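SAMPLE LOG
Freezer: B-3
Tube label: C17
Construct: single chain, 362 aa
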Amino acid sequence: MSVDVIVVGLGFGADFAPIYQAHPDVGRVAVVDADPARTAAVADRLGIGERFATLDDALAAPGWDAVHLLTPVRFHADQVRQVLKSGRHCASAVPMATTLEDLDALIAAQEDAQRNYMMMETAVYSREFFHAKQLLDSGRLGRLSYFKGDHLQNLDGFPEYWRGYPPMHYVTHALSPALALANTRVESVRCLGSSRLTPDHIGVAGDGFGTEAALFQLAGDDALVANVTMSFFQLGRSYLEGFSVYGDEGALEWPQLEGGPMKEFALQPLAEGRRGRAVSEVDVRPPGAPELLPEALRPFTDGGHGGSHPHLVHEFVSSIVEGRKPRVDARTAATWTAPGICAHQSALQGGAEIQVPDYGAR
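STRUCTURE (predicted):
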């Protein structure tokens, strides 16, 4: 089976189009962007002949199997429904949606359409996540005990639709590694907002806080907590986006400065007469798990976002070819997205505990 794919949104999508072109199970690739000049530039550079001016035009064309949406967040919910209703498989950038009602609607749309939906969550296909999973599976972390996530990014100068955007609505990069490693969901959340937005930062996306910090209580008997800080405005700090995972025998920490090595820790046996166990620490730069990919996609693991892009493309395409659910299907995507929606609600309510819906995914 050969899958024909339409890539929509060439700001971020320009990184994905050549990966689809290289995938052995992909036939044709087409591109769509609201900016005709960008469409022409990207398509010409990649040698893509089939181009559409709008998503409507693309969906009206016969013979395409799947659509990958890399459009602004505010369009995701409506466009995913539109793609699924057209009978195509659909992938979208994060987040899946920004309201609980839309999460429910998208799950229903996917189940009605009987087509695949995949949220393209980069964090759980990154080289760093693969390394954390290897440490956990090998027993080197021991029993999971705590998670930490951060996404600190200044959005000044970004397009107007980002002004006022609630940081927790974009929580999946910082939270999903914890949920995937622990194979669980968030049960409840308490979140506080910090630094009320100044008038120049209030915009179409909302009126809230520059920074939001949350404690997510994970479901299960181990009383696991994920501590996540999200900030998009009014924080004088360089970009940081990553996760740290702690067990009772070891840990893996994200570097404080982007591009630096991760730190891997291991508790040593308690020495006689010593207070506290010694801890060894080493710098690690995990590989991009190229062995999990078709040979044609392996060179792309050297790219950004932890080398996740080829893994995302391969999982989406493979799920279609193999007739199975993708790893981050509609219910899993909702499970990873809803906690951020509830966290922002908690922040607006001064830190009230909010119960997070159970979408039946692990």
